[in-house]
């Protein structure tokens, strides 16, 4: 098996790695790049613990080969804070206790972040749809919904609106 | 997994000549949401993967006949298309209940077809809309009705030298309505126990001139219940007639018992879901008639 050179943009910085052609993006991130925030839950796309942003959309990194991500922009939980300031939804997750064990949290946060990137006034139904691919066995999801609603309100206020 | 090579050809011609040279040892990878797992589990062991992403197969375009969908169109793209929602609403209805957003962002129409799973959610709606598919090779294209593509679970008529490149949906004559219903153990992230798509197109008389009842997860391949369809043609769509067609559909399916549902449950649910889908399709038709 010949290793391939893979270049892509990782959390805003260029990354260049060598990887086997069948290595998943999940293992590239965790084992080769040391970014262990992205979790390996089920490894089969069922749990969503491995969700990252690929070219602006959330995907299961266990079901993407590193080679498929060549030339793309990848954003992981490690790249979500800007200049040391948490994204609003990261903070409201803490404020509303939207996690307990924390294992699903990185993937859950990426899905919530993706929703808020395209919609800063989501309905409850839209939030539940956005996290339909993320399993949480601790919270029962209610606090997650609340965290997203709070973050959305903050984003609307910050965007100068505030009017629903 | 032990894939030796990964190639991202820049043109369809390049991809097709690679596929011709390497044949069955080469697998096409689109979204990869199914293929990667089957490689990990060693169900499939291709020596070469051919990535379709640079081939511009992700377009949705209007044609004289209807819509042309590239094989690399993702389920999320289907959900964003106003044309598909307007003319072929049963297809996005199936996409909405398919897994969850991260998978819908990657999984493609072509992948859902080529896998030839009897439980594929997108295939019954596509068959109900009389979809044709385009199989390309260095020798040219062949176009065939999607319903003729499947041979058995995981098996189809695709040749080792071919790549599925396009799905063609002909515009339905109107009035026409279609409904998709999926039964799974929950609304998201579940594989169908039974799925049903029905389509009715009525003529000037107001009576059906075309009927499609297409079922998934109840036979070795996605199937049309053609005897049940025949019951509906040219008849007044009474509750009794729709129930009769549902009973006939139940007689036509040949489900198995597996981890998701038993044979007897699937039989019962086939009747229930076909009846519900037909009732909803008829209601949709009368709704669109009053709109006009």
Structure description:
The complex is a heterodimer of chains A (164) and B (292). With 164 residues, chain A is of the alpha+beta class. Helices cover 33% and strands 15% of the residues of chain A. In chain A, helix 2 (88-95) crosses helix 5 (142-158). Chain B has 292 residues and is of the alpha+beta class. Chain B folds into three domains: 5-51, 2-Layer Sandwich (Uridine Diphospho-n-acetylenolpyruvylglucosamine Reductase, domain 2); 60-170, Uridine Diphospho-n-acetylenolpyruvylglucosamine Reductase, domain 3 (2-Layer Sandwich), CATH 3.30.465; 176-291, Enolase-like, domain 1. Chain B has eleven helices and 14 strands. In chain B, strand 2 (26-29), helix 2 (35-40) and strand 3 (48-51) form a beta-alpha-beta unit. Chain B is globular and about 60 Å long. The termini of chain B are far apart.
Distance between the termini of chain A: 56 Å
Structural class of chain A: alpha+beta
Radius of gyration of chain A from the CA trace? Answer: 16 Å
Question: Could you report the average pLDDT of chain A, rounded to the nearest whole number?
Answer: 95
The beta-strand count of chain B equals 14
The largest contact between protein chains, plus residue counts on each side, is:
A-B, 31 and 29 residues
Main sheet attributes: strand count, strand direction, barrel closure of chain B? 5 strands, antiparallel
Low-confidence region ranges of chain B: none
């Amino acid at each position: 098996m010949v290793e391939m050179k893979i270049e892509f943009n990782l959390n805003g910085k260029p990354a260049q790695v060598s990887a086997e052609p069948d290595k998943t993006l999940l293992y590239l991130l965790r084992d080769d790049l040391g970014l262990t925030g992205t979790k390996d839950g089920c490894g089969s796309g069922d749990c969503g613990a491995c969700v990252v942003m690929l070219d602006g959309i959330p995907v299961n990194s266990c079901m993407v080969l590193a080679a498929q991500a060549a030339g793309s922009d990848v954003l992981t939980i490690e790249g979500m804070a800007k200049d040391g300031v948490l994204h609003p939804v990261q903070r409201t997750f803490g404020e509303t206790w939207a996690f307990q064990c924390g294992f699903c949290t990185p993937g859950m946060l990426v899905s919530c972040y993706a929703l808020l990137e395209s919609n800063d006034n989501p309905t409850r139904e839209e939030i539940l749809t956005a996290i339909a691919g993320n399993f949480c066995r601790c919270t029962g999801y209610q606090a997650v919904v609340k965290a997203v609603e709070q973050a959305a309100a903050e984003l609307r206020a910050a965007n100068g609106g505030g009017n629903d | 997994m032990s894939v030796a090579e990964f190639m991202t050809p820049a043109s369809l011609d390049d991809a097709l000549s690679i596929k011709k040279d390497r044949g069955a040892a080469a697998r096409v990878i689109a979204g990869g949401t199914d293929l990667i797992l089957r490689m990990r589990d060693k169900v499939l062991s291709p020596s070469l993967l051919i990535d379709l992403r640079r081939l511009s197969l992700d377009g949705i375009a209007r044609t004289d006949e209807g819509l042309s969908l590239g094989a690399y169109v993702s389920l999320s793209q289907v959900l964003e298309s106003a044309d598909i929602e307007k003319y072929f609403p049963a297809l996005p209805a199936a996409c909405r209940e398919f897994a969850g957003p991260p998978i819908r962002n990657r999984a493609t129409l072509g992948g859902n077809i080529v896998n030839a799973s009897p439980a594929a959610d997108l295939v019954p709606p596509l068959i109900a809309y009389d979809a044709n598919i385009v199989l390309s090779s260095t020798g040219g294209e062949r176009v065939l009705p999607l319903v003729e593509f499947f041979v058995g679970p995981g098996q189809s008529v695709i040749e080792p030298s071919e790549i599925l490149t396009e799905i063609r949906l002909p515009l339905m004559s109107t009035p026409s309505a279609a409904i998709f219903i999926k039964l799974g153990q929950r609304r998201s992230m579940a594989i169908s126990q039974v799925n049903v798509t029905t389509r009715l197109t009525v003529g000037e008389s107001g009576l059906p001139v075309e009927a499609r009842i297409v079922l998934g997860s109840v036979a070795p391949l996605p199937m049309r219940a053609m005897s049940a369809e025949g019951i509906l043609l040219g008849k007044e769509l009474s509750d009794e007639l729709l129930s009769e067609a549902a009973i006939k559909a139940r007689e036509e399916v040949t489900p198995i018992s597996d981890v998701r549902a038993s044979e007897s449950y699937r039989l019962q649910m086939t009747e229930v879901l076909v009846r519900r889908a037909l009732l909803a399709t008829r209601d949709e038709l009368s709704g669109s008639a009053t709109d006009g």
